[in-house]
Amino acid sequence: MKIVIEGAGEIGSHLAKMLRAEANDVTVIDNDPSRLSALSGYADVETYLGSPSSIKALRNAGVSKADLFIAVYPLATQEVNIVSALLAKQLGAKKVIARINDEDYLAAENRLLFKEMGIELMFYPEKSAANEIVTSLKHVSSSDTMDFAHGKLQISVFKIDEDSPMVDLKMEEFIRTMTPEETTQFRIIAISRSSNTIIPKFDTKFQFGDVVFTVSKREGMDSLLKYFGKTVKAISKVMILGGSPIAEMVARALAEQMSSVKIIEKDKDRCIALSERLPESVLVVHGDGSNSDFLYEEGIRDYDAFIALTESDESNVLSCVVAKKFGVQRTVAEVENIEYIGLAEEMGVDNVINKKLVTAGRIFKFTLSGRARFVKYMSGSNAEIIEYTVAPGSPITKKTLKDMNFPSNAIIAGVVRGSDSFIAVGDTRIEDYDRVAILALPQSVKDIDKFFKV
User: Fold this and answer.
1) Each residue's pLDDT tens digit, 394-445
2) Rounded distance between C-alpha atoms, residue 239 and residue 295, angstroms
3) Which of 328, 349, 376 lies at the terminal end of a domain, its last residue?
4) Is 275 helix (H, G, I), strand (E, B) or coil?
5) How many domains does the chain have?
6) pLDDT value, residue 141
7) Which domain holds residue 250?
8) Using one digit for the tens of pLDDT, what is the confidence trace for 54-63?
9) What's this model's pTM, rounded to 2 decimal places?
10) Contact 347, 253 (CB under 8 A)
11) Which of 123, 138, 159 delimits the end of a domain?
């Protein structure tokens, strides 16, 4: 697939590296030589120096032959990306995507308007990150969760603590402890250990620090939490460090759900702006949240969740560690340096949010067969969760799963069929129009896609 990316900023560069790793032909346009030079240093992509909305630059970069055009120009108004996307469409690009920074553009009627103009997807990374954070607070026992069919199936990620009953238990021994009913309600599908993601076998032994991926029906969650030694405590009071756009969106979303939402922001002018825009129930406090004494004075011990959303990855991680020491049940940190994500999790941060990974999943589905509903990169591993809608007559419907020769680095976790959902096993046979949840390692995604092409 030929892909042209406009913009070599953080998100554009990450997408270029990721999409090139999938054997795509990638060209990146930018008018900053230093950004292009930095990108060329770690990604094998073509680069073109030119203005983001220059028709000449778009033509010279091969937009007319592009299967996908992605407008993610950094430090520019959203109009630049929209104009570039529309030009690329007119010049012949098959699909075009544009980054925006106005939540109003995501309203259903506005998305339809732009789709009619030719833009297949408009994405707002900060809004997507805010949605991820709000969702994470609903699943307080897992570090990451993805719901299918309004929660009929859930893929959840649990970290094995030192005192977990799972430590040193073999997969075979774990299965033997399950009741017949539980075997139909949930299943362990993968383990992330020391930066490696493995599909467990019967003799695989769980270890302290393992990040375990599970698929569960709604009625199986209580049993699953019991086996992992997790307890559920509802979150009602949230403290947010930093007054960024993400923080503002999170606070607005939580205002009606929580009994108390407090934002700590050190910039006085930003505090005033937030106070004027947010609901009265959100308390905005001017102060330095990196000071643990200040957090103590603001009653951090009384809060159920602490969300760190400053511009500094280091401050976000360290403040979450401090919050944990004060007894806060749930911590969430925005970490934009992908290299820091594993370190943050090792230091005890419950949930790590990265705008680049959130965005990448939404865009990556456009490189697949068209039957993929969405893709999500799960925290704590390099695993991807993909949901497919099964087209009539596709190869995945021809045999049972055990006879399918499905890629070994992937596993079909669950199936939603009409109003029913069930855990996939070897004897499962996929049917037309099923919605299928798959956990996959990156190297197997293209092979998986072939099973869903007609």
Assistant:
1) 999 999 999 999 998 899 999 999 889 999 999 999 999 999 999 988 788 8
2) 10
3) 328
4) helix
5) 3
6) 63
7) 234-328
8) 999 999 999 9
9) 0.83
10) no
11) 123
